[in-house]
UniProtKB/TrEMBL annotation:
Name of the featured protein: Vitamin B12 import ATP-binding protein BtuD
Main location group: membrane
Lineage top rank: taxon: Bacteria
Enzyme Commission number: 3.6.3.33
GO MF annotation list: ATP binding; ATP hydrolysis activity; branched-chain amino acid transmembrane transporter activity
ABC transporter domain sequence ranges: 353-593
Family the UniProt entry places it in: Belongs to the ABC transporter superfamily.
Species per Swiss-Prot/TrEMBL record: Starkeya nomas
InterPro entries (UniProt xref): AAA+_ATPase, ABC_AA/LPS_Transport, ABC_transp_permease, ABC_transporter-like_ATP-bd, ABC_transporter-like_CS, LivM-like, P-loop_NTPase
Record carries keyword Ubl conjugation: no
Length: 604
């Protein structure tokens, strides 16, 4: 195995040490604060720290993963009600305290898993997910109202016994929970998993074509964050010894979103400090200005959203110098490593790609009709045809089981049925897009590692420095100079570089069937030749079956072992390059005449 070290790797990554030092410093401050603060302020800060934990979960979901959720307040309330219900109806003891804690976690996890399943099933839009999380608080509040003496109805539950601790102890607990939650989540967002979360936010569709099961990841994250919020709610009620339906409601859920946006979403430290600051100030203002304080917070929110869309803490950090928000962590000393392929050609003995009777209609428009096609192992098939012939639609029908209207598609002998794109990737398919579809704020290294998710499980707490690629993908990376740009953000790459990156990503999947939609569009002649030779090599050395849509007939002639001409959604001719090039029918179609030879552009 050869190791390629990125030139000038720069200094070692100091961030883990920095996170450790900051966490320690924050814990020391938590320990010292009660000595310097009065009773009322300590009281307020306990509440603010616990609200901050809930806001951190909003930031993980919304700021990092792009899931706008109104439900985190409800999960906080579920944790709170677990305490209220157990202590009211079964009394307080160490056993019931443990039971209430476990009940809080289990109830929050169950509700979140069910809501997450509804909100994030394959094909659900972000708006739909937002609406589902909006409905949850409304339902939970109604259930609590109608719970009678069990839930205390609109009055909630009060007067139950709980832990008898000093206020300083509660402050230590709440402060430590806020600090440790921030530290843990900071490590997670800087890890390989953090990169996947940002990728889902940036381009969920592309994730699924890299074999990443985005809906499942979102459900797991939603459930985990619900449990964290419930933990904060548990501590809150043990301290306050009162629960009310409002603690699970929509207003509280929205306030958490406001705190997150004001503090600076996608930064963790922003929502933490934002919540502590705003909730702390609000507590004073609500006493001094009982009717005005919400109006003030609302006005500040609108002003910040318009004037400082990044939020208060990042803006303040930029003014003081040094703070630059990065979508994902930068890692120095990145290494490219050549690995033996685990995927590529299937040994099943079945046809690599088999399509029969494939139809695709959009309403009354019949785009594909009765397409029959097979591609053997190691074949390089070019699909050509005039604009609008249905070539891209054919690719969509092969790579997403929900796309076709009728017919059968099998990859390595496995029918795709109604499988989602990420499941079809598992069958051995890789697809690149007509319009480059990448993750704009991620780096080249991030994108390459994302493409390897199928083969290397992302770490939850660490970020790998190595990018392991099969020979063919490494060749594209090296030949195009991407290896010297591993830490460059994708949005800053030239068009040619983006195409090269997309090609290396799809090869990094090690597919046995590779669908490429105009991979050389916008490339220079030498770049096209390089891509052509890599594809031919891939077919020969790894027996990959490549299906390529191309308009450049010279390129097609050079690389193809077979050509299919698609016309008006049907296969017009399927043969060798020579057969297609010498076909009168094909000439007629490209000259704008119908398959029967009549001029299509001539008026009827
Ligand atoms: N979502 C859609 N809804 C309705 N019609 C569609 C949809 N997608 C594609 N079509 C129609 O299907 C036909 C085939 O489109 P397709 O993109 O597959 O053609 P193509 O052969 O790839 O063309 P090009 O070479 O220009 O990319 C076109 O007439 C197009 O307008």
């Amino acid at each position: 195995m050869t190791e390629h070290v990125q030139p000038a790797p720069g200094p070692r990554d100091q961030r883990p040490l920095l996170i450790g030092a900051m966490t320690l410093l924050a814990l020391v401050m938590v320990f010292l604060a009660p000595m310097a603060l009065d009773y009322y302020t300590v009281n307020i800060l306990i509440r603010a720290c616990l609200y901050a934990v809930a806001a951190l979960t909003v930031d993980m979901l919304w700021g990092y993963t792009g899931i706008l959720t109104f439900a985190q307040g409800t999960f906080f309330g579920i944790g709170a009600y677990a305490v209220g219900l157990v202590f009211t109806h079964y009394g307080f003891s160490p056993t019931t305290a443990v039971l209430a804690f476990l009940g809080a976690l289990v109830a929050a996890a169950l509700v979140a898993a069910i809501v997450g399943w509804f909100a994030f099933w394959h094909g659900a839009s972000p708006l739909y997910a937002g609406v589902v999380t909006l409905v949850l608080p409304i339902i939970v509040v109604q259930l609590l109202y109608s719970g009678g003496t069990l839930t205390g109805s609109s009055s909630g539950l009060v007067g139950f016994e709980a832990f008898d601790l000093e206020i300083e102890t509660w402050f230590y607990i709440a402060g430590t929970l806020a600090v440790l939650t921030t530290a843990t989540l900071t490590i997670v967002v800087r890890s390989d998993v953090g990169r996947v979360l940002v990728a889902i936010r940036e381009n969920e569709t592309r994730c699924s074509y890299l074999g990443i099961n985005a809906p499942r990841i979102k459900i797991v994250l939603f459930t985990a964050m619900a449990m964290v919020a419930a933990m904060a709610g548990y501590v809150f009620t043990c301290f306050g010894m009162v629960v009310a339906p409002e603690m699970t409601g929509l207003v509280f859920g929205t306030e958490l979103i406001i705190y997150t946006a004001l503090g600076g979403r996608g930064t963790l430290v922003g929502p933490l400090l934002g919540t502590i600051g705003i909730d702390g100030i609000s507590s004073y203002l609500s006493g001094e200005l009982p009717y005005l304080w919400k109006l003030i917070v609302g006005t500040v929110f609108v002003a910040v959203i318009i004037l400082l869309p990044r939020g208060l803490i990042p803006t303040l950090g930029s003014l003081l110098g040094g703070f630059r928000r990065r979508e994902t962590a930068r890692v120095s000393g990145l290494r490219l490593r050549r690995v033996e392929p685990k995927g590529f050609a299937s040994q099943s003995g079945a046809m690599a790609l088999a399509i029969s009777g494939l139809d695709r209609r959009y309403g009354s428009l019949k785009v594909l009709s009765g397409v029959e096609l097979t591609v053997g192992s190691g074949e390089l098939l070019s699909v050509v045809g005039p604009n609008g012939a249905g070539k891209t639609t054919l690719m969509r029908c092969i790579s997403d089981g929900h796309e076709r209207t009728a017919g059968h598609v099998a990859i390595n002998g496995n029918g795709i049925g109604r499988l989602s794109p990420h499941r079809i990737v598992e069958l051995g398919l890789g697809r690149s897009f007509q319009n480059t579809s990448l993750f704009e704020t991620l780096t080249v290294a991030d994108c390459l590692r994302l493409a390897r998710t199928r083969w290397e499980r992302p770490h939850l707490f660490t970020r790998s420095r190595e990018i392991c690629l099969p020979e063919a993908a490494l060749r594209v990376v090296e030949a195009t100079g991407l290896d010297a740009m591993l830490d460059h953000e994708t949005r800053n790459l030239s068009h040619g570089m983006k195409r090269a990156l997309e090609l290396s990503m799809v090869i990094a999947l090690e597919p046995s069937v590779l669908l490429l939609d105009e991979p050389t569009a916008g490339l220079t002649k030498p770049e096209r030749m390089m891509v052509g030779s890599i594809l031919v090599d891939l077919c020969r050395s790894e027996s990959v079956s490549v299906v390529i849509i191309e308009h450049d007939l010279d390129f097609v002639r050079e690389i193809s072992s077979r050509v299919v001409v698609l016309h008006q959604g049907a296969v017009l001719i399927d043969g060798t390059v020579d057969e297609v090039v010498s076909s009168e029918l094909v000439h007629a179609v490209y000259a704008g005449k119908g398959a029967a030879g009549q001029d299509e552009r001539a008026p009827a």
